[in-house]
Structures are given as structure tokens and as C-alpha cells.
Amino acid sequence: MKTIFGHNVQTDIIILYFAEAVTVFLLAYAALAWGIAQGVPMDQGRAAIAACLLAVASGLAAGASGLYQPAVLARGRPLPGTAVVAALMLAVAAWLCVVLVGSASASIASLAAAASLMLGAVTGLLLARLAHAMATRRGLLRRRLLILGEPDAAPDAPRFELLFVPPGSAEPLHPQRLRQVWAVIVRDPAVLDPALRRDCRQAGVRVLSAEEFDECRLQRVQCDRLPKDWLAAARSARQSRAEAALRRGFDIALAASLLLFTLPVMLLTAIAIRCDSRGPVFYRQARTGLRGCTFNLYKFRSMVVDAEAGGAPRWATPHDPRATRVGRIIRLTRIDELPQLLNVLRGEMSMVGPRPERPGFVEQLGAVIPHYHDRASVKPGITGWAQVNHPYGASVEDARMKLAYDLYYIRHRSLFLDLLILVATVRVVLFREGAR
């Protein structure tokens, strides 16, 4: 497991990503070289650039289609749906690469070049994943953990090889042995022997408590074990002005682009809502935002008018009877969320962050879940770490689990993590994960 801009990424996924990129580049370039020999109007230099662009795009397509999901990696082969989506994305990426760096003078030749690129990309992904599956089965990608304690206190770590050192035993902790492990797990790193801590630092070995290891492995925090002042050390609290300006500029550019791109869909949705049921096209609802301030969130109306009789907030349920015919469709496809891009442009929301909750639910959940109000330390977002890792929740326990992911995001927030979330959001939308 590696830390990249504060975010913990599994080492085997990093290895798989680079293996796929290299394999896709080599096979895509070979396919284009063969096409050039057959008369495709493209020189070797442009072929190398196109293959390089496709190698980068293949990783984005794999992430956006869910090929890096634990369930897919555990199977050793992609699920049919993810494979089809990944292939379609690679087809589009291959065509764009040809248009950007190739010659569009002969359309048939351009299609042939795009087909060659796609063939090389798909073959590269398959070969890289086959090699990764074989290496996983043979245990070549497993990392060693040194546990200072008895085996009965071992953490649940199926991807790791566990080495136990009984308390008081010093011989197995020789510096040479430390270089063979990924991390040392102790109950309380604060009381670790200074000499051992020095040896670990010199060997480049992390020293973690069981809770810290679980946070790295599961990519969520244990809310009930966080100290009161944990926010002071969070990455979101140390955001520089330059990073804040870059994040705001990115939000504006992406929100404006998506508004222009989805404008036809939004116009058709507005007409369908108006024809389907009485009531306004848009729906405004009070939500809690940054530092607890309340703002009006915009959505396409997907439920009947007066869906909440008496004004009491209610959780949405599967096949909610309050949803209209058009509402069921736009909720499943997440089209009802598109007007929130206006909230992003107004500065009330960000593209990525914890989902804004209703004040009534915030008060209710804050009374029973520790640190629930800490979500308000950053702007709420249209998508977030909780949304791409946990399905829609309609209970206190679901809210507790989503908070564990939200607080992890706040603790490790970075533009890199934002990018990963945006890529994963494509998977959530395409496969309608958690939609109600």
C-alpha cells in the first residue's frame, strides 16, 4: 500500500495500472505500425503519441467502468457489464486519439487506425490482467506485516502475510528483518521503543496502530475513535490559498462545461416533467453546507407535489411511491442531480465533497453519531468518497458508514483524490449504483 498525495492506494492496483499502461502502449503502437505498413496515413512519431495517449486513457476507462473494484479484482476477470463498458470507452478513446494526432483525410483509413488502436488496447488490458491474476494466485503481490503482539490480536488482512513478534522479543526486529516488511502494527505507536522507531524510520517502514492500519486498508475512519481535535491535523485544514483557488477554478470550469454539454438533456427533462405531472419543473430544498450554513439545493422535481405531508423529512425508499413516472427515470439515471451544477457555480457546493444533508436529518444524526457535524468543515459536493464506496443509505447505520468515508475524505483531501472520485462517479452513474 502506497500513500499518494495523502491517499492510501493498494500496491497491487498501482502495479496493475502501470502494467496495463505499458502493455497497452506496446500493443497499440505495434497495431498502428502494422496499419502504417498497410497504408494507414500516419507516421511513426504520431503513432507513438496516439499509443501513449491511449495508454493513459485505458487507465481512466478501467477506473470509470469499475475494473479496479475489489469484487472484479478478486474474480481475476472482469464482469460482463464492466467489460462491455470498458470496451466502448476504449473505442471512443481510440477514435479521439486518431482524430487528435492522426490524419483525418481518409475516413476509412482513420477508422482502420482507430480499430487497430482499440484492438491493441483491449488485448493489452486482457494480458495485463491475466498476468496480475496469476501473480495474485501465486502470492507474489502480498506484502508482509510485522505484528507486535499475539496471533489472537491479528487484524483482518487477507492481502498481507502476517509475521508475529511476541511482546518483549527483540531479536526478530533486527534492521535487516525490518526491510522485508511493509509496516509494523502495534497497539499504541506512542509507547513504541525509541530504538525500534528509529530503525523503522531508517528502513522506510511505517509504524501504525491497528486503527491506522484499518484506515489505510479500508479507506475509511472509525468515527467513534477519533479525538476531538482531529480536524486540526486533517489535510483539508491545511489547504493553501493556491490549492483553494485551483479547486474553485476547476469546479467552475467543470460545472460550466457539464451544463453546456447536458443542456439538451436538461431541456428534454424539463418538458417531460411538465407533461407528466402538475407542479414546478425544479425543486428547491434547504440543505446544510459549509460551516453549517443553510442553502437552497436545486434538483429536477422527481416526486409528486407535497410529497412530504406536514413538512417532516422522510428517507427515500426503493420504488418510492411518491416518485412520478418521469421521476423514476431521472432518479435512476441521476439526471435529477444536474441542476446542482448551478449550486457549484454559485459557490455553495463543490464538485466533490460530502453530500449536503437536510437540516432536520443533520440535527437527528448529529445527536447519535460522533463527529457527524465535522462533515461541514468542507463544502458539500455533487459526488463524494462516500457516494462511490457505499450505496444510498436510508438509516442511521447507513449514515454512520457514509460518515466514515466522508471523514476519510476530509482527512486525506487532495486534488488527486478528487480526480479518483470523479472517475469512479462515472461507474456509479452508468451502473446505477445506489439509485432510488
SSE layout and pairing:
Blueprint: E1 2-4, E2 7-9, H1 11-37, H2 44-65, H3 70-75, H4 80-101, H5 107-137, E3 143-148, E4 160-165, H6 175-178, E5 183-186, H7 194-203, E6 206-209, H8 210-218, H9 241-276, E7 282-288, E8 294-300, H10 325-332, H11 340-345, E9 350-352, H12 359-366, E10 381-383, H13 385-389, H14 396-412, H15 415-430
Parallel strand pairs: 3-4, 3-5, 5-6, 9-10
Antiparallel strand pairs: 1-2, 7-8
Can you put this structure into words, describing what you see?
The chain has 436 residues and is an alpha/beta fold. It has 3 domains: 136 residues, no CATH class; 76 residues, Rossmann fold, CATH 3.40.50; 193 residues, no CATH class. 52% of the residues lie in helices and 11% in strands. The strands form 4 sheets. Strands 4-3-5-6 form a 4-stranded parallel β-sheet. A two-stranded antiparallel ribbon has the order 1-2. Strand 1 and strand 2 form a beta hairpin. The protein is flat and about 75 Å long. The chain starts with a strand and ends in a 6-residue tail after the last helix. The relative contact order is 0.09. The model has no long low-confidence stretch (mean pLDDT 84).
